[in-house]
Amino acid sequence: MRRREPSIISIIALLILVIGIPATIVAINLGFNPFAFASPTESPAELVVANVTDTSVTVSFLTPAAPTDALIKYGTAADALNLIASDTRDLTTGQSGAYRVHTFEISNLNPGTEYFFAPVIGGTTYNNGNTPYSFETFTTLDAPAVPNPKYGSVNPTSAGALVRAHAVNDGTVSTPISTLTADNGTFTFDAGSLRTQDGEVFDLQGAEVIAVIATEDNARGGVQFDASAQPGRVAITGNSTLAYSPVLTALPETGITATPTFTTGSSPTTTPTVTVTGQPTATVTATVTPTVTATTSPGEDDSVILTAAYSGGLEQTDSSAPHTVFISNLSVNGFTVNWLTKEPTTGAVVVSSQSTQYLDNRDTSSSQSARYTHMVDIDTSDADPGDLISFQLTSNNKTFSGIEDFRFSVTVPEISDSPPSPASIEGTVDTGFTRTIDRDLIIAGQGFGGGTTWSSIPAPQSGGFSLSYGDLVDPDTGSYVSPDQIRIVAYGEYNSSDTATADPDETVALDLEPGVSFTDLRQSRSYSSPPRFTGTAPAGSTVLIDVNGTEYSATADSGGQWRLSDLSSLTAGQNTISASAAGDIVATTFSLDLELLPDTAIENWGNLAAGALLVLAGLVIKRIITVTRYQQSRG
């Protein structure tokens, strides 16, 4: 009987079996999914629901990477988004345009009704990680009593720039308002239409208005002004990292319309866009932080004289960068530099004129601890009144000189009057979590009345504290301060904080809850195996996690702990991850030294299905060949 040569079909079937199985395994490890569709380069950034009334809202967001077309799908049920809203400018032109700045006016809504929505960008729907975005209209509103129009413009002129604003009054934040600039770069909005979170007319008496502007060419700018004044001409710049959030209680720097950045000895290799995403509703929570101010003195060694807390914004992309930098305990003999970091780091201060490095008050030359809070005492006993002391901060041995081309500086005060009698305010600090870092807690007090200044102390691990305020010196006047009231702020590990305002003879009780943090990831660290995605956030809050552009969500448990088990978005090499909750954000970059990453996500079922289909196809073809041969042998 003549030996039958293998047919082409037999060879193909064997190749499918031999190649299909290992190819499937490699594809799974590489994250390939043949069932996945192409998507735009980015999800909606800085998404905000503004102009909320009983029958309408405005949804706005950014796509900084590239201009794209977009629309909004919405409805009263999360699984039935059967209504469409087009970009406001498309309604005028009758055509779908491509923009980086997107705004959608949605009207004819029902009062007191919750609506769900999803942005559709470049044909891809973004549903916030299967937790649809939502907003709720107010019940029937009374018309504002008095219109309060605000007029401004942007410099340089930019048409179609997105202006978003809200008011802050004694820590209370209004709902946001938004508009676009005209062709000549001017804008206007009615501050009289601002509402409380309950829909009442917002009290603008003594309030300040915060406005942040984003343009089509990714320039940013901002202004903070008294509600009785006008915003005026707002400078915008292309290198600003200023981002809008409806819970801002102060711009990163009062009086400077573009957010400066820290000058560092080694810059991060990537600068991801900071976004405020999640489930926007009419309710927002304001986080009370110290007032941010810094004054520049170009004629004095190009220095920034710190008179109150300052943040440069770099902490939003580099969790080891300093933020909330402020000076306390100012005297003719010295001062204390205080700052925070979004992750535990070592810290010190270098004074150039003295060629001296000062360690954290809680450290020794033989033992330095990594902490979220940092405080360093500087000795100026050999300096003269009026001398300018410039210094640099170090965090994990990386140098932070100041903002842009300016250095941090403090002027040694010239004190003419005698100090008042010693005085202190007493208080207690409780934590809603287990503290793991030794003495990672700062108590700071800001006195009001006859000048403004700070004092600070490292707090004990638990129990009470006593903060002196009798020798506070106003950095602007050099006079001692006799405060009428004192604001006490506690800063602790896991980015926790609490604040209270009290009379000098009151006892203050502070309660720390964990803020947003990563408990295992560290900035610029290299890992040889996938790290754990764990962290902290306010108990019960929804945490939005972005891993290399893929969004996930988790819920913090009663102890403020959260965990993400899906590691499928990791890649070999550099990775960027951010987590946001309750209006706060932490971001970091790290390296993963792996050639292939293990698949741990159920979402990669497509890879397994593709492999199974390849194997099944080979088995079917092989069966057809067998039956054909059998029939041939019978025939």
UniProtKB/TrEMBL annotation:
<dbReference type="GO" id="GO:0003993">
    <property type="term" value="F:acid phosphatase activity"/>
</dbReference>
<dbReference type="Pfam" id="PF16656">
    <property type="entry name" value="Pur_ac_phosph_N"/>
</dbReference>
<dbReference type="InterPro" id="IPR008963">
    <property type="entry name" value="Purple_acid_Pase-like_N"/>
</dbReference>
<dbReference type="InterPro" id="IPR013783">
    <property type="entry name" value="Ig-like_fold"/>
</dbReference>
<dbReference type="InterPro" id="IPR015914">
    <property type="entry name" value="PAPs_N"/>
</dbReference>
<feature type="domain" description="Purple acid phosphatase N-terminal">
    <location>
        <begin position="47"/>
        <end position="137"/>
    </location>
</feature>
<protein>
    <recommendedName>
        <fullName>Purple acid phosphatase N-terminal domain-containing protein</fullName>
    </recommendedName>
</protein>
<dbReference type="InterPro" id="IPR003961">
    <property type="entry name" value="FN3_dom"/>
</dbReference>
<dbReference type="GO" id="GO:0046872">
    <property type="term" value="F:metal ion binding"/>
</dbReference>
